[in-house]
């Protein structure tokens, strides 16, 4: 069941469809996503996995990075978006490409040494199940390494929309403290759990919203307005966001969660 203390997240079919449509455009605008994943890779302890999983593998960028890092290991790439898997498969990296859900992994117990997941798990309503599944499929001593997003992400855009109307326009994520509670209760040993902001800057509102659409991460929340957003509201949004401009441009803050959790036994 979804975490009752977390925001209501989009239907997974909508998430899968949105990211499938974004497969061809994603890498061109995914600078933040690459930087966050590279930081997670750099924080991995010394490992010699025989089998790893890239969970929420997307276009396969980090599947290929993991294959370079652990050339002797068998790699699996799993994503809920079939379009992403079709895009990633010809580029290699993983040995197997699987369609599946992080809350119900189609993998045998104690079959992995490393589960790596960067900026995918924020779309999972039941994060406790994600952690339970990671614990189930990891061998003793295995590691779950993940990044996700927490509340406060795109707060500037959220606040600007709040100046315009009362609809839900910006994706909502669980608070960092809830990540902490769920990780501590997971049966996995937290080695690292921290929140770090990352701020991007944009020349104008159109550049920001265009990037979100190219990533497949535009507004998918229940409560979003139906139909097209009128020009008058877009002008009002642009004016509201301009009041938040800084010297570098229009700020867009991502609140990134970094976690390393080990299965002790």
TrEMBL record:
EC nos: 2.1.1.197
Domain Methyltransferase type: 53-146
Catalytic activity of the protein: malonyl-[ACP] + S-adenosyl-L-methionine = malonyl-[ACP] methyl ester + S-adenosyl-L-homocysteine
UniProt key word Lyase: no
Keywords for this protein: Biotin biosynthesis, Methyltransferase, S-adenosyl-L-methionine, Transferase
Enzyme class: transferase
GO biological process: biotin biosynthetic process; methylation
GO molecular function, one term: carboxyl-O-methyltransferase activity
The protein's annotated pathway: Cofactor biosynthesis; biotin biosynthesis
NCBIfam families registered for this protein in UniProt: BioC
Record function comment: Converts the free carboxyl group of a malonyl-thioester to its methyl ester by transfer of a methyl group from S-adenosyl-L-methionine (SAM). It allows to synthesize pimeloyl-ACP via the fatty acid synthetic pathway.
Family the UniProt entry places it in: Belongs to the methyltransferase superfamily.
Identification of the protein by name: Malonyl-[acyl-carrier protein] O-methyltransferase
Lineage: Bacteria, Pseudomonadati, Pseudomonadota, Gammaproteobacteria, Pseudomonadales
Gene (name only): bioC
């Amino acid at each position: 069941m979804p975490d009752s203390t977390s925001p209501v997240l989009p239907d997974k079919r909508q998430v899968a469809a949105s990211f499938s449509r974004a497969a061809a455009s994603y890498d061109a605008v995914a600078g933040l996503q690459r930087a966050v994943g590279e930081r997670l890779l750099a924080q991995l302890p010394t490992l010699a996995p025989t089998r790893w999983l890239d969970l929420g593998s997307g276009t396969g960028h980090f599947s290929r990075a993991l294959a370079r890092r652990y050339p002797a290991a068998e790699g699996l790439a799993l994503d809920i978006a079939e379009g992403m898997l079709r895009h990633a498969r010809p580029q290699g990296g993983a040995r197997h490409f699987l369609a599946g859900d992080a809350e119900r992994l189609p993998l045998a117990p104690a079959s992995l040494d490393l589960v790596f997941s960067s900026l995918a798990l924020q779309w999972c309503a039941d994060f406790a199940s994600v952690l339970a599944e990671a614990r189930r499929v990891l061998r003793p001593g295995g590691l779950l390494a993940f990044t996700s997003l927490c509340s406060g992400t795109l707060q500037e855009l959220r606040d600007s929309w709040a100046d315009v109307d009362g609809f839900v326009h910006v994706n909502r994520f669980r608070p960092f403290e809830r990540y902490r509670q769920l990780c501590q209760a997971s049966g996995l040993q937290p080695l690292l759990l921290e929140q770090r902001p990352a701020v991007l800057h944009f020349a104008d509102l159109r550049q920001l919203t265009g990037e979100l659409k190219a990533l497949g991460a535009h507004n998918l929340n229940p409560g979003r307005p139906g139909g097209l957003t009128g020009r008058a509201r877009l002008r009002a949004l642009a004016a509201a966001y301009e009041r938040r401009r800084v010297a570098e441009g229009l700020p867009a803050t991502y609140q990134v969660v970094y976690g390393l959790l080990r299965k002790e036994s």
